[in-house]
Amino acid sequence: MIAVSSLKIVVVGGGIIGLSTALACLRRGADVTIIDRLASGGDNCSRGNAGMIVPSHFVPLAAPGIFGQAMKWMLDPESPFHVKPRLSWDLMKWGLRFYLASTANQVKEASPLLRDLNFASRDLYVRWNDEGIQCSLAKKGLLMLCCTEKALEEEAHLAQRARDLGVPAQVLNADETSVLDPNVTLTIAGSVYYPKDCHLDPSQLLESLRNEITKLGGVFKTDCLVKSWKAGSNSIYAIETNQGDIEADEFVLCGGVWSEGLVHSLKIQLPLQPGKGYSLTLPNPIELPNVCSILCEAKVAITPMGSALRFGGTMQIGELNQSIDPRRVDGIVKSVPKFMPRFRVQHFEGIQPWCGLRPVSPDGLPYLGRTKAWKNLTIATGHAMMGLSLGPITGELVSQILHGIPTKIPLDRLSPDRYSV
Ligand SMILES: Cc1cc2nc3c(=O)[nH]c(=O)nc-3n(C[C@H](O)[C@H](O)[C@H](O)COP(=O)(O)OP(=O)(O)OC[C@H]3O[C@@H](n4cnc5c(N)ncnc54)[C@H](O)[C@@H]3O)c2cc1C
Fold first, then answer.
1. Span from the CA of 383 to the centroid of ligand 1 (angstroms)
2. What is the pLDDT of residue 1?
3. Where are the alpha helices (DSSP H) in 132-186?
4. Of the candidates 54, 10, 12, 9, the residue with the CA atom closest to the CA atom of residue 383
5. Fewest CB within 10 A of the end CB: N or C in the chain?
6. What's the pTM value of the predicted model, to 2 decimals?
């Protein structure tokens, strides 16, 4: 790619979204500084996740049926979804917006967009991998494993919608699933196989991206807390941090779930709730599947990473902290033997759960684009369960926006102003 830019860009946030943005801008020749309040390689949501790249996930979180299901799950302390009840105007407003967005029409309109973003991002991962950005990318597909015939029927229905959208999907019975992944013993009714999905090792990816960014001249400011903005009437000229002010031509906010609080003073409404999730990684699993999978009824993601096996799940809305709820972790652990009978609850003893906070918008779609009120502020966050998948394309689109290149994917639905009055 030809270096043509003379832009000075500050990226707030060194998660997958910030790093992807920094890389894409550096490759256009920009001068990029990445600010993060964590130490180098610190623990953000991008590190311990399930590592899945998911063109199969074309349905946003806000979809018909999710509200009723969530209400049922609220009564079960080990369920995969929970909203911590508390008197919070922001949480109530977010909940109402989520409810209003959970319509068939919104899914119909958002699905082709999510498909296009996911496929474009997958292509970029393949390219990164070919270019030597190491992440152990495995292009082996994803299995949606179903214990019951009822779940299989629902997944088969979704598979048909996937095929209608051009996302390949195959419904398999239990024997066909075992042929596809002979490395693991399963007690299931069947599965849906999405051959275009992939998996990778997110820690390795982040490390490799940081190395590449440094090689291209990107500057990391670590342990650097962004406090506020210094702005004129319609543009920002500096960012105020605990290490002093940092000036730039363009500012990109990729602060994950903390982004909402960072734009209050700019009078931008960016509703986000933390969607807390956990992962547990077995270093020496009794069986090592070949293909990554999701246990459909339990909503648990299982991903081989080298010789280890990671189990991720749970969406606890509304807790902006990294405290661990052992009942939810138990919910993940207890679900595994129901699908994979050679695994025992005891295998997880002594394994320290990791916790991450997904940035969740009320309509389940990312915020991606420039803001109307501030001509040099671009926002890229709110990717919820798909941040890893959508990282590379988000970075590329932000870089195109900053460099005045028309984006091939229409981004109106993702406007960061969509909840601002
Ligand atoms: C259990 C679990 C499993 C998941 N599995 C998958 C998966 O398989 N596939 C997938 O696509 N997605 C998955 N996700 C979702 C994915 O991890 C997130 O969507 C993604 O990591 C969000 O990336 P981000 O860069 O927006 O945020 P983050 O990774 O949280 O990065 C934001 C950064 O901003 C910094 N920051 C915030 N505020 C400030 C400030 N004031 N000053 C300086 N720095 C600041 C933070 O320190 C942080 O480093 C999973 C999530 C969880 C919890």
1. 8
2. 47
3. 149-164, 174-180
4. 54
5. C
6. 0.97
